Amino acid sequence: MLDVRLVDGRRADVDEYHELQRAASLVDYPHSPPPTREAVLARLRDPDVDLGEHLLWTARVAGRLAGCLSAQLPVDGNEHLAFARIVVHPSDRRQGIGSRLLRAGAVALRDRGRTVVEVSQIESNSPGARFVAAQGFRTVNTSVLQTLELSEVDPAIWDVEPPAGYRLERWIGRAPETLVESYARARHAIGDAPPGQSAFRVPSWTVERIRRVEASYRQHGVERRVVVAVSDPGEVVGVTELDLQPLRPELAAQRDTAVLAAHRGRGLGQAMKAAMLRWITADKAGLRRVWTSTAVANQYMADVNHRLGFATVRRYSVVNRELAGL
Ligand SMILES: CC(C)(COP(=O)(O)OP(=O)(O)OC[C@H]1O[C@@H](n2cnc3c(N)ncnc32)[C@H](O)[C@@H]1OP(=O)(O)O)[C@@H](O)C(=O)NCCC(=O)NCCS
Per the CB 3.0–4.6 Å rule, which of 34, 78, 166, 324 could disulfide with 22? Predict the structure, then answer.
């Protein structure tokens, strides 16, 4: 008997989810280590803070966890959209469980006013790719996942100075009052990254939104580090951001990097990212690797990452479809 229902992820029994994610990972990513219990716990407790409210559905067969659907509901101009990911245990696939989860989620997401569902990390020729094709999703962007193994690179490659006329500043968790306004303006520059046809719209960054998101990170216990490039008049013209989760001390997530158009082509992106790597390796002893993701069309950013020691792990697609009709 299949039972699909909406549950509270923060109260979930982590061991059950770990068993599900581990079994799926061993089949879907046989060349990568499966997620640890802490990694699964971190995803349940602290999903992507930027991406809004987190909803979780479980599918149980005779009481056993056979699959789940995890969705996030972004705000600030993205009230039309929901991000989703379904995982079904390898021994329970091709029995309609993924489809049932998707339908249950679609009804609830439509009730919350969402009109489009988007899924990322779909690899070509995978069960996920066949599933989303069967469900009428279309590919809207292609990205690369890159990781940096800190023990495998010579830290000297991060000795990159900012160009003349700029200095770097940095903070953890809260932008200083003197920089927060120009920091909000500079964050818009990420809107120039190739979005493909993703339904995600770069939010309008205001000081109020910056403060709200910063508070949300603190509340979830995520340490957000920011390095910015500041021009001579004291304006932020470039930003790079990185997240550290207490449950995953070995792994850092390199998030957005963006430089305002008028200041591009001078090596600011590389200088900021290099400074971030010097910073986290100087005071985070347990850190082993950093991951990041970049659109395939953004060759410039992928090249900067290679110069800093990142290697491309895999390519994947972003797909979406209307929720109507699901
Ligand atoms: C993708 C995934 C969730 C599908 O779960 P599932 O319970 O097997 O899916 P369903 O049984 O509902 O499949 C529905 C249809 O999708 C297609 N499909 C799903 N898996 C397929 C496969 N391996 N090969 C070919 N078609 C497949 C078929 O058309 C299938 O209908 P059919 O069995 O009647 O032919 C599961 O394979 C999984 O967990 N993959 C890893 C995680 C992932 O990639 N998630 C992304 C999707 S959101």
Answer: 34
Domain residue limits, the chain: 2-114, 148-315
User: Does the pLDDT value for residue 196 go beyond 80?
Assistant: no
In the chain, the amino acid numbered 274 is A
| C-beta of 266 in contact with ligand 1 (< 6 A) | no
Residue 186 CB-half CA count within 13 A: 30
CA of 95 to the centre of ligand 1 (A): 9
Alpha carbon distance 316, 20 (integer Å): 22
Q: What is the pTM of this model?
A: 0.92
pLDDT in tens, 197-256: 888 888 888 999 999 999 999 988 899 999 999 999 899 999 999 999 988 899 999 999
Q: What is the pLDDT of residue 228?
A: 98
CATH superfamily, domain 2-114, is Gcn5-related N-acetyltransferase (GNAT) (3.40.630.30)
Residue-wise burial string across 46-71, b where 16 or more C-beta atoms lie within 10 A, e elsewhere:
bbbbbbbebbbbbbbbeeebbbbbbb
222, 213 contact by CB (below 8 A)? no
- Does any ligand 1 atom lie closer than 6 A to the CB of residue 125? no
Give 89-134 pLDDT, tens digit per residue.
Answer: 999 999 999 999 999 999 999 999 999 999 999 999 999 999 999 9
Atom of ligand 1 nearest to the CA of 97: 7
Give pLDDT tens digits for 169-189.
Answer: 999 999 999 999 999 999 988
Q: Is 2-114's fold the same as 148-315's? A: yes
8 Å CB contact between 298 and 141? no
Choice from 60, 65, 94 to test ligand 1 binding pocket (greatest atom count within 8 A of CB): 94
Phi, psi (deg, nearest 5) at residue 119 = -130, 135
DSSP 159: -
Fold classification of 148-315 (topology level): Aminopeptidase (3.40.630)
